[in-house]
Amino acid sequence: MIHAEDIVQAHLRIKPFIHRTPILTSERINQQTGCQLFFKCENFQKVGAFKARGAMNAALQVPASQLANGLATHSSGNHAAALARAASIVGTEAFIVMPKTAPAIKKKAVLGYGGKIFECEPTLAAREETLREVVLKTKATEIHPFNNEHVITGQASVAKELLEDIPKLDALIAPVGGGGLLSGTLLSAHYFSPSTLVYAGEPEGADDTFRSLKSGKIESSQANTIADGLLTSLGDKTFPIIQQHIKEVLVVNDMEIIEAMRIVWETMKIIIEPSCAVPFAAVIKNKDKFAGKRVGIILSGGNVDLEKVLKLFAA
User: Fold this and answer.
1) Which part of the chain is the Tryptophan synthase beta chain-like PALP domain (predicted)?
2) Whole-angstrom Cα distance, residue 120 to residue 267?
3) Residue-wise DSSP of 209-221
């Protein structure tokens, strides 16, 4: 079980290695949505995403005797770069399994931090099997992208900061893929702002969290969405937290995600990736739920393949 003090200590532990990211507002967007929105900009975080927090917290807690063998993970992008960076900070190697289809910008980031990439087919089974082979060969310590308590407590620091800087929020909304960020957000709200309701935004083409809550068991991801950072299924550590604390999962389609991303780019003049736009798309689609409310939105990252996104906008 993760307690409030675990989150506090994780935040203190990683503080020297992360940004306390800004919170932006837009009067124009508030008028469009009928509520007060507070955007927590993790697109300005180290490695361009919130993943820097969880990876750093986990890496800092690997015993020194194990660090020499390196750190390993599988990831489609942001966690890969975050773990490569964390490994370089603690003075060891990073072995990263990535699907062949991972965005080029995210592979470039991993290599830039000194990580070693092992490519595999774009399926969860292939990622896990390749990672098993890498760990067997290198004896590296696996740091799972989301199904790891140190990662969850690190990600919880995002909402902790938001709730400290903007108290008395009526609602918080985060994207959900594997559930690390959402689990951390739920726990921070539970401990530090119990009256704040937490929602999740999820792509229609990867709505496994929505389906899992309906069925009561972890469902597999369909993995058919432009939100490439949200293609993984929940884990046995994240799912129970979500089951216990979530208010509702709000599902949006790819066209709604693209439009939300366009609004942020054009109105707020900041770059966000498709996965990052999902919570805002959910607010736009569900204006009645948030009318007149103070709502925190976690902008999870800004690592985009510009050529690909510009083609989406043009379409």
Assistant:
1) 15-301
2) 38
3) HHHHHHHTSPPPP
How many structural domains are present in the chain?
A: 2
Judge if 119 and 173 occupy the same domain: no
Whether residues 209 and 171 share a domain: the answer is yes
One domain for residues 231 and 293: yes
Residue 168 lies in a domain: yes
Together in a domain, 91 and 219: no
What is the per-residue pLDDT for 70? Answer: 97
Residues 45 and 302: their CA atoms lie apart, in Å, by 9
Q: What is the pLDDT of residue 304?
A: 83
Is residue 239 within 8 A of residue 218, CB to CB? The reply is yes
Residues 44, 117, single domain; the answer is: no
Residues 160 and 213 in one domain: yes
Helix (H, G, I), strand (E, B) or coil at 143: coil
Query: What is the pTM (predicted TM-score) of this model?
Result: 0.94
pLDDT digits (tens, 9 = 90+) for 161-202: 999 999 999 999 999 999 999 999 999 999 999 999 999 999
Domain range spanning residue 130? 63-142
* CA atoms of 110 and 215, how far apart (whole Å): 37
- Would you give the DSSP letter of residue 37? E
Each residue's pLDDT tens digit, 232-278: 889 999 999 999 999 999 999 999 999 999 999 999 999 999 999 99
Rg (CA), the chain: 18
Pairing between strand 71-74 and 94-99?
Answer: parallel
- Which pLDDT does position 156 carry in this prediction? 98
Residues 129 and 249 occupy one common structural domain:
no
Question: What letter does residue 268 receive in the DSSP assignment?
Answer: I
